[in-house]
Fold:
Amino acid sequence: LIWAAEHSLALQAGQEAAERFRFALTSLEKSSEVNLGKLSEIRLKLGESLKLASKNDAALRVLEPVAASDDSAYAQRWALNHIGDILKMRERTNEALTSYAKCEDFARSAQDHELIAEVSADLAELHMRESERLAGVNPTLSKYHDTEYKRYLDIETEYVAHSSSAATLARSFRNRAKYARAHGDPASAISLYEKSLSFQQHGVASHQLIIPYAKALRLIGRAAEALERVDAVLDWSRQIGAPHSEAIARQYRGLLLLERALSSSEPISRNTDFIEARSELTTALRLHEETGFRQGYRETCVDIFELEIQDDNLSEAFATLHLSNPFAELTDKSDIPLVKAVTAQLRTNGEHSRADRIISRLSELGLSINSEEIIP
Structure:
């Protein structure tokens, strides 16, 4: 049962893995000689599987007792890492940082180089997201997070040299590629993403490697290839029941279809790509809400905002931004400060052309924005 569950987990079939780990756990609990350390490690794997299946409340119920127990030091420190991942996804940033800090301390004490690389990657991603999120709200804090992002990226790169895990190596190349893409070097990003993809297990088409690669392809004008990659993620995620991956695939598919519609001479309102883009983004927004992925929800609101302004629906566009409450720290949440925050976020993520496109379209609709004031 454990072997079958681990096989499912390796293929990122979270729901299937969780069911098998539950059976294995029941069998172990009924054993005449219960090994508490082994039980704790199987509960860790069960929690990881539930997290992968976007059953995050259930995952926390399993992982929190493991993190609080000393039955297995290995399971304890890795449970803290998975808890941090869930808190990060929900943008409970301070709690995530606390969990990751405990995890990092335990990992260094145990000289667990694999986990040091993993938690450093997690912290790099957290600081990257915070740098982007705060770009149009608190430039000083955004800069701090960008510095921390690079620091943890360097730590990850240092420790990944000790790893024999294909997944760890793939993630390291992916995170370095993300940094290159966001900092204006899409060509280097493409090379690093392709190295990352060379470690991907055959038969797996998770969003984690393929969607970032598609983003870089789009930035260098290879949108058709990007769409093919996104479609592969969508097909795979629906096949194995991975709503988190499905939501991200639909979100990015919606943006690609929107941009293809904008390049057409056909009126937007009658363009089939535009109509399909609206459907994909609406579905992505619902799935992000269901899985609790706050970053994805906020980004999809920005995508819908752009879709609506391209269709002359200015009031609906701003209603979407306000509904998403994307910038909790923003004191003035009227229309123009929101647009400045949105475009600052896009520029921080390497999306300068898209930010310019939004400003240009709003100008056509009569909303004047000084682009010089947008970049912090």
